[in-house]
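Exercise 7. Given the encoded structure of a 212-residue chain, write a plausible sequence.
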């Protein structure tokens, strides 16, 4: 009798186990991620101040001025950078040994991610050469017309901006010193551009820097 009962109950027990497995409850968790990308943007701030000094106790014949203005739009495709102001330094009636210094200007990180700064200097479209003086300070030599003679030398705190990291909202001040050399030609106009490029901090390497 018990063997018959076992034979009858065995399929019933198997079906009960099968249906209990099919009826097993479950729950699922899903992860929804929203990512908003940051922006890289730097601006010049401050009020440029010009110092010219004197030549043998008398005012220079030349004249130097500095303003922050939109000189050219370098960044057509960057919505954050399409209205940046440039530091425009204008020197008129310059001659060898003339010196001009511009101060009270800042670079501000107005973007939302940290950046590192990369510096390149051009004179009339030619890349100026980065050098180091005996005290370890950087300066730039510019042969604007490519004739092998030195036309301009630039130095100042702007040279120390290379590789500096700025967090969003951070600012750093700098100066620009300019000296007209003996190689400068009479009556010529030199266009000098100091390009300060902001690179997202984790993409900056020593190869980003223009070597002299």
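Solution.
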């Amino acid at each position: 009798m018990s063997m018959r009962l076992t034979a009858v109950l065995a399929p019933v027990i198997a079906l009960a186990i099968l249906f209990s497995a099919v009826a097993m409850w479950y729950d699922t968790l899903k992860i929804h991620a929203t990512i908003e990308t940051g922006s890289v943007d730097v601006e010049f701030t401050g009020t440029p101040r010009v110092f010219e000094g004197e030549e043998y106790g008398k005012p220079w014949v030349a004249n130097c001025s500095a303003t922050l203005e939109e000189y050219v739009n370098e960044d057509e495709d960057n919505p954050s950078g399409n209205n940046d102001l440039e530091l425009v330094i204008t020197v008129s009636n310059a001659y060898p040994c003339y010196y001009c210094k511009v101060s009270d200007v800042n670079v501000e990180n107005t973007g939302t991610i940290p950046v590192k700064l990369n510096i390149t200097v051009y004179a009339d479209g030619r890349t100026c050469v980065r050098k180091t003086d005996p005290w370890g300070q950087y300066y730039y030599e510019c042969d604007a017309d490519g004739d092998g003679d030195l036309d301009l030398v630039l130095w100042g705190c702007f040279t120390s901006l290379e590789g500096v990291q700025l967090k969003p909202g951070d600012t750093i001040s700098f100066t620009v010193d300019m000296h007209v050399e003996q190689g400068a030609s009479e009556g010529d106009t030199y266009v000098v551009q100091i390009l300060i490029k902001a690179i997202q901090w984790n993409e900056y390497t020593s190869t980003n820097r223009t070597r002299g």
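Remark. The CA atoms of residues 126 and 144 lie 6 Å apart. Students should compare their own answers with the one above.
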